[in-house]
Amino acid sequence: MSQDDLPSAGRSKRGVKPSGKPTLKTIAQMTGLAVTTISRALNNAPELAQDTRDRVQRIAAEIGYLPDRAALRLKTGRTNVIALVLEPDEQIYGFGTALVTGITEALRDTAYHLVITPLFRNVQPIEPVKHIVRNRMADGVIFSKAETFDERIRFLLDNDFPFVSHGRSHWPEPHPFVDFDNESYAYEATLRLAAKGCRKVSIVLPDSALTYTDHLKSGMQRAAREAGIGFEFASDVNLGSPTDAIRNYVIKRARRPDAPDGYVCASEVSALAILGGLSEAGLSNKAHVLTKQSTSMFMQFQPDAETVPEDFSGAGRMLGQILLRRIAGESEGLHHIAVPRFAWIKDQQSSHPAA
């Protein structure tokens, strides 16, 4: 149906914003379409013509129509909301923004809306998840920084509530997740530093509770032993430490005997802090730094450095896609591990599903 096909009553009311809170009936009166058709059009029902869906959605936006989520939840048990739990510091340096970009791309042309739920400092990570589930505030949850035995994952599995985590756990039951192959990254990065002549490599690790900490440690250990070089894990600091603390650690470590001459970095921020420490210690030309890269920030300072890309926007898209599949009732194959692309190794695929 085109604009010209609208009943005259519908055309005469077009362009006049109704008083009061707009409802489905309001849009039906303005278009001459049935309320059920309006509802299907707002939910992108594929059986309706695209121009009908576009027109109804345009009118809804113009008059400020918002669905009554309480009524929707009572009627269908659904909220059409996806909750993303983020810590405030995850917005820094683009991580949170990149995830949101990817997730919203996955939710485009669906009935779902993304709502960000903050995880404030001094609040246990499970608390916002419990609040969402117990109050049925969303149809699914996304969160990051998965721990080896993450209580959020345990709680969501036990309550059969749809979710997907950025990172994996060691619970025996399979669960939906999206991850980066950090073990492969640390392994190949360590071998690369050894090939550059490094005799001892180091890494500033994430918090010890996080699953990918073990992956990074395992990859570095294996490669260092194969290459016959030394390795160590930075003590007293981790990726969550202030950059000044990481920088000062590197300065002090560089001045002690048997200092590392190669650093594998798990983030651009830690890489910049390490480079600053090496510079102040007078070792800029005597040590090598290799890092993951998720933004253009690092290359602004080190344009000739070797880096390995990690696509957080792509991870966000996969998180959204997998969660939609889980909400739809799927239970198999709900995981994805992105494989690092190493510029010095040819013919690598960018990603593959987890085994």
Structure characterization notes:
- The protein has 355 residues and is an alpha/beta fold.
- The chain has three domains: 24-67, no CATH class; 76-180 and 313-338, Rossmann fold (3-Layer(aba) Sandwich); 182-310, Rossmann fold (3-Layer(aba) Sandwich), CATH 3.40.50.2300.
- It has helices at 8-13, 24-31, 35-42, 50-63, 69-76, 95-107, 126-134, 151-158, 182-195, 211-227, 243-254, 268-280, 297-301, 312-327; strands spanning 81-86, 113-118, 140-144, 163-166, 177-180, 200-203, 230-233, 262-265, 288-293, 307-309, 335-338, 351-352.
- Strands 2-1-3-4-5-11-12 form a seven-stranded mixed β-sheet, with helices on both faces. A five-stranded parallel β-sheet has the order 7-6-8-9-10, with helices on both faces.
- Strand 3 (140-144), helix 8 (151-158) and strand 4 (163-166) form a beta-alpha-beta unit.
- Helix 3 (35-42) crosses helix 4 and helix 11 (243-254) packs across helix 12.
Key phrases:
single chain, 355 residues, alpha/beta, Rossmann fold, 3 domains, 5-stranded parallel sheet, 14 helices, elongated, disordered N terminus, disordered C terminus
Major pleated sheet? 7 strands, mixed
Order of helices and strands: HHHHHEHEHEHEEHEHEHEHEHEHEE
Number of helices: 14
Uncertain ranges: 1-16, 347-355
Order of strands in the sheet with the most strands?
A: 2-1-3-4-5-11-12
What is the mean pLDDT? 86
- Which CATH first-tier class of the largest domain would you pick? Alpha Beta
3D shape: elongated
By DSSP, the count of extended strands is: 12
Number of structurally distinct domains: 3
Structural class: alpha/beta
- How far apart are the first and last residues' alpha carbons, in Å? 48 Å
Q: What is the helix fraction of residues, given as a range? A: 40-55%
Strand content: 5-15%
CATH superfamily of the largest domain: Response regulator
Indicate the CATH topology of the largest domain.
Answer: Rossmann fold
Q: What radius of gyration results from the CA coordinates? A: 25 Å
Tell me what the CATH architecture of the largest domain is: 3-Layer(aba) Sandwich
Protein name: LacI family transcriptional regulator
Keywords: DNA-binding, Transcription, Transcription regulation
GO molecular function, one term: DNA-binding transcription factor activity
InterPro entries: HTH_LacI, LacI/GalR-like_sensor, Lambda_DNA-bd_dom_sf, Peripla_BP_I
